[in-house]
Every structure is written in structure tokens, then in C-alpha cells.
Write a structure and sequence with these properties.
It is built from eight helices and two strands. The chain is mostly helical. Strands 1-2 form a two-stranded antiparallel ribbon. Strand 1 and strand 2 form a beta hairpin. Helix 2 packs antiparallel against helix 6. Pfam families: 7tm_1. Its main location: membrane. One of its GO terms (molecular function) is G protein-coupled receptor activity.
């Protein structure tokens, strides 16, 4: 897979077509975006696994599918995102041929896992949204790779390089979007999350109820 590394020779294809060092903005901005994606994705998916494991009522077929996706996203974020981020400030791949092939394998594994799990999962509105987001996020980079490989008129210019950066960020952001979907669309997830972290929500409720208590005291004093 020629998505982020060339597995045949272990060199980076994130460099510019003229094999020049990356521009300064690419060298620090792209790794920064990847770092944010990694932190948000690891935090969100870890919370999803924690909530599912803590409540037996969450042990359903759909939630096991979601837990499987969360585990796959965590593996992908840990094994792929840091290595791809390093490609941009460096002129070439420095981790050797084995890691080059391993990163490409994990990327393919993540795509195949989401596809196969979506077929086996119970169809629901949330699952359909997850599948649509997966297609939206991973479609551009897959289309770019196909055009790059099969189009005889493809030009390796800086515009194509920018498009590939954007497509990379889109595909990797899919691993941190799923937990947000669970939070907004899954009522059971929201309830389970509140039960798991009840201390945080109890404090918010007590603060919100304090003005009402003061108002009741004033009314009682007037009467």
C-alpha cells in the first residue's frame, strides 16, 4: 500500500516530488494535526471501552461491534499515526523496511476490520452513520492512491502533495470521530457515561440547583 510509505523500498512518499526537504509549514503543522488526532482518538476510544466494560447492560451485539472498532482505532492510532507524522519533518523513512511494511499492514487491517464488522453488526441509525463517516473519511485517500497508481496523466506536483496531506488527515481523523458519534447519537452511551463518571455530573447538578434553593428560601422568608 502506497498510502504513507513505499513498502517496496522503505522510503517515504510524503516528500515532495523533487525529493526536496518538506516545507517548514508542512514539517510542523501536519505532525501537530496528527498529534491532536492521536490524543483525541486515544482518549475517546478508551472512554468508550471503559464505559462498555463497566456496565453489563451495554453488552449488546451492536456495542461489541463498537468496542471492536474502538480497539482497532486505538491500535491504528498507536502503531500508524506517530510513524506517519514523522515522515513530514524528515526527508525520508528512517524506521527500516520491517516497520514500513508493518505500518502499511496495520492501515489495511484497520480498513478491513471496519468493513467486515459493519457487515456483521446489527443495523441501526448510529451504525449507518459510522459506516457513512468511514466512507467519507477514507474515500479521498483511497481514490487518490487509485488515481496515482492507474492514471497515466497523474502529475506529481505540489498541488497533488497538498491533496494527499488533506486526504491523510481525513482518513486518520476517522479514528477520533467515532466516539463523538456515540456521545451524540447513543442515548444508552450517554446514560452509561453519566453513571460511570457520576461525580462530575453530580457536581454540575448541585451547582445548577443552588439558585432554586436560594429562591425557595427567599419566598419562605417573605411569606
Amino acid at each position: 500500500m502506497n498510502e504513507s510509505v513505499d513498502s517496496s523500498n522503505g522510503s517515504s512518499d510524503a516528500a515532495t516530488p523533487d525529493e526536496e526537504a518538506p516545507l517548514l509549514v508542512d514539517a510542523w503543522l501536519v505532525p501537530l494535526v496528527f498529534g491532536v488526532i492521536m490524543v483525541v482518538g486515544l482518549t475517546g476510544n478508551s472512554l468508550v471501552l471503559h464505559v462498555i466494560s463497566k456496565h453489563k447492560k451495554m453488552w449488546t451485539a451492536t456495542n461489541f461491534y463498537i468496542a471492536n472498532l474502538a480497539m482497532t482505532d486505538i491500535t491504528f492510532l498507536v502503531c500508524c499515526v506517530p510513524f506517519t507524522a514523522v515522515l513530514y519533518p524528515l526527508p525520508s523513512w528512517v524506521f527500516g523496511n520491517f516497520m514500513c511494511k508493518f505500518v502499511s499492514y496495520i492501515q489495511q487491517l484497520q480498513v478491513q476490520t471496519e468493513r467486515s464488522a459493519a457487515v456483521r453488526a446489527k443495523v441501526s441509525r448510529m451504525v449507518l452513520v459510522i459506516v457513512q463517516l468511514f466512507i467519507l473519511c477514507w474515500g479521498p485517500i483511497q481514490l487518490f492512491i487509485m488515481v496515482q497508481a492507474f492514471s497515466p496523466h497523474f502529475r506529481q506536483d505540489y498541488y497533488a502533495y497538498k491533496v494527499k496531506i488533506w486526504a491523510h488527515c481525513m482518513s486518520y481523523s476517522n479514528s477520533c470521530i467515532n466516539p463523538i458519534v456515540y456521545a451524540f447519537m447513543g442515548a444508552n452511551f450517554r446514560k452509561a457515561f453519566k453513571r460511570t463518571f457520576h461525580c462530575l455530573f453530580k457536581q454540575r447538578v448541585s451547582v445548577a440547583q443552588q439558585p432554586n434553593a436560594n429562591a425557595n428560601t427567599e419566598m419562605h422568608y417573605v411569606s
